[in-house]
Each structure stands twice: as structure tokens, then as C-alpha cells.
Amino acid sequence: MAMQYQWYPGHMTKAKRQIQEDLKLVDVIIELVDARIPYSSKNPDIQAMAANKPRVLLLNKADLADAKKNTLWKEYYENQGYLVVPVNSKSGDGAKEVGKVIAQACKEKTERDRKKGILNRPVRAMVVGIPNVGKSTFINTFAGKAIAKTGNKPGVTKGKQWIRLNKDVELLDTPGILWPKFEDQSVGLCIALIGSINDEILVTTELGFELCRFLTAEYPGALTAKYGIEECQDANELLQRFAKKRACLSKGGVLDIDKASGFLLDDFRNGKIGQFTLEQVKQRVDKSENEKTVSE
Ligand code: G4P
After folding, report:
1. Do domains 10-173 and 203-295 have the same CATH topology?
2. Which atom of ligand 1 is nearest to the CA of 177?
3. Whole-prediction pTM
4. Ligand 1 test: best mutation among 41, 43, 89, 142, most atoms within 8 Å of CB?
5. How far apart are CA 248 and CA 263, in angstroms?
6. pLDDT exceeding 90 applies to what percent of the chain?
7. Which residues, listed in sequence order, are joined to residue 28 by a DSSP beta bridge?
8. Closest residue by Cα to residue 133 from 35, 6, 7, 30
């Protein structure tokens, strides 16, 4: 079930304060975004909150995204100073690489420790991300079966639980929940398409329409290959063809486009049509450049 959420200024202030407190306890931040929407699922404020901590960025649900685009987004965020790994938290794919980059991120700290004579002190990390990006799944999968809670330690805020990921890394067991960007309608659309906000915010039919438009433009042939329907420029017409093919009829025998859109979205979200990335690096980069110059 997709998580429903709504953020109010009060929530955000509280969440921000909590994250700022927790960040004091860790050496490295592991930020999760959804690989299908690596821009829209990323909270812009964490950058400022994280100050000078090393940052690891996981393109989670990489199994559902376009592999070529994963590479492009990886490069994009690497250029911004992140250590980036595409992962599948459900299967654990990418686990080795995650371990490696955490060690890399903390190299300086480990070095400083060594100079002070502190050896083999585990690195402390914390997971952050907007709802539904897979934070809990990541923690459960990557901590494995042998989740060993290390409990409270002197000098550490009471009640904090740490999970031993491996001999080198400890993870705070509660992830930091961030909020998505709101200012931009296309971000809302992206988040709705992957199913992370309540469909009622955007009408299902509208989402079906947008999905048809996106797929025919960016991945021509994908709908034909999956459903055997002929693609066309007109997304309304295409949605009708899909409804006909899936025999989505309402009582009076007319096509039920809302129902058809629901089926199409389900297939898309579960990766049944293929692996797609909704956001292109170029579009988003151009957009952020414009936003910087055109202030309202
Ligand atoms: P959160 O803590 O950040 O809110 O997210 P959570 O772990 O609850 O994950 C949200 C949904 O995303 C879950 O699906 C989870 O299984 C799925 N998920 C997480 N990581 C991955 C991944 O790397 N690949 C894929 N394909 N899915 C992932 P759900 O629909 O809530 O449950 P279910 O379908 O697993 O039963």
C-alpha cells in the first residue's frame, strides 16, 4: 500500500529538529531517493542540515528504474559531491557497494581516530528520506537477520538504538523522515505517479493520461510490447485503447477510463510494464538553473 502523507509546517519543524538532533550522533548520512524520480524524491533542505558530514546517496528501487538513467543520475549526484550507489533494498542488491562507500565516506574520520590511537571504532550512520522511498526496507534488509541492537551507550542520548550493519558500521534504527519538495507541481505529479501520495490528490484518470503521455514520448513501444495496443500521440485515445483491451467497461457498457487508469498505474508501479525513470537529468538541471535566476 502506498503511504499517504500530508505535511504541515508544524510537522516539518518537528521533523527537522529531530533530524538535526540525530545528525549530531552520526558520522555519515545515508540519504535514500527513489531511482525513478531522483530529483523529486530528494529533500533540498537536508543539504544545509547535514553541513559538512559525508553523504552517501542511494538510488533505491533501482530495480524499477531505467538502468541507463541510473548511471546518468549517479554521475549527476557524484558531481555534487555525493557517493552514489544504485540499490535494490528489497533484494539486497548493491549491499557490498554500500558498505564500501560508507567506509570511503568515513575515511578521514577513521584516519583521525587512528592518529588519536582509537582503532576499529565503528562508523555511525543514519538513514534519511521522504516517505515511501524504502528506508525501513533498507534498514531491515541491510542489517540482515542478525540485527543486533547495541543499546544505549554512555554519552549517547537515551533511547537511541543502534543496529550493527557489519563490523565497521552502526546504523541508527529510526530513519529520519523528510518531506518532499512542494513548490513545483511536476514534483507532485512524479510522486503521485510512483504511488507515494494519495491518488485522490490527483485524479486517477489524470495520472493515467500523464503516464500514457510520458511512456509514448520517452519509451515508445513499451505499451505496445506489453499490451499489444497501437500507440498514438493522443494520450486520451491511447487510454481508451488500453481500456478496450483490458475490457474495462462500466455498467452501461461504456469504457471505464478511471478503472483502466488504475490498472495501468498498478502495472507501472510494480514494474510490470518495464523499468522506467520519470525524470531526465537534463530537464531537471535546466529547471533548477532557471529557478536560481528567475526568482519570484
Ligand atoms: P519508507 O520506510 O521509506 O516509508 O519505505 P518502506 O521501506 O516502507 O518501503 C515502501 C515500499 O517500497 C514497500 O512496498 C517496499 O517493499 C518497497 N521497496 C523498498 N525498497 C525497494 C526496492 O529497492 N525495490 C522495490 N522494487 N521495492 C522496494 P509496499 O508496497 O509498501 O509493500 P510490499 O509491496 O513490499 O509488500
Report:
1. no
2. 3
3. 0.90
4. 89
5. 9
6. 60
7. 125
8. 35
The model's confidence at residue 295, banded by pLDDT at 50, 70 and 90, is very low
CATH number of 203-295: 1.10.1580.10
pLDDT at 211 over 80: yes
pLDDT in tens, 81-127: 999 999 999 999 998 899 899 989 988 888 888 899 988 888 999 99
The whole-angstrom separation of Cα 258 and Cα 274 is 22
| Domain parsing of the chain, residue ranges | 10-173, 203-295
Query: Are the beta carbons of 67 and 134 closer than 8 angstroms?
Result: no
- Greater pLDDT, 240 or 15: 240
Q: Which residues contact 169 (CB under 8 A, 6 or more apart)?
A: 99, 102, 103, 122, 123, 124, 125
* Domain spanning 10-173, CATH class: alpha beta
